[in-house]
Amino acid sequence: MLAPLGQVGEGILGPFLNAGKMRAQEEEIRTRALDILEFVTLGKLTDQAAGKISGGQTKLLELARVLMGDPAVILLDEPAAGVNPSLTRILIERIEELNRQGKTFVIIEHDMDFIMRHCDPVIALAEGAIVFQGTAEQAQNSPTLLDAYLGAQADG
Fold first, then answer.
1. What is the pTM of this model?
2. What is the CATH number of domain 8-109?
């Protein structure tokens, strides 16, 4: 509930001069937060301290926190790293659903299997420069990528 910007209660006089507006806004934010927690499958953990949940649930909570700001573009750094397969599947399902709803994701990931199965387009960087942009299939056959990431040349 702390994530949304511009809350009436953030100002020093807000709680005193706009108490009714502040309470209404907090209720809207609480309802949105609960809806988002349900979306990321954490609704049953609403009263659980964040420090007491698993690493995979923490990744889902991080996504929920980002969604509270309603961004158009979401940057994820290795979203599946260290997450058990069942929670990874849930995380991927939520990312794909949000993508269908119009959210754009920039995913930094070193797990090429993850990239090949879930990212379109694939954009690869080497030393800060774009060295490839295309489909997953094109990436798998790119001599540039094979050389940049594997130190090998593609056959053919």
1. 0.78
2. 3.40.50.300
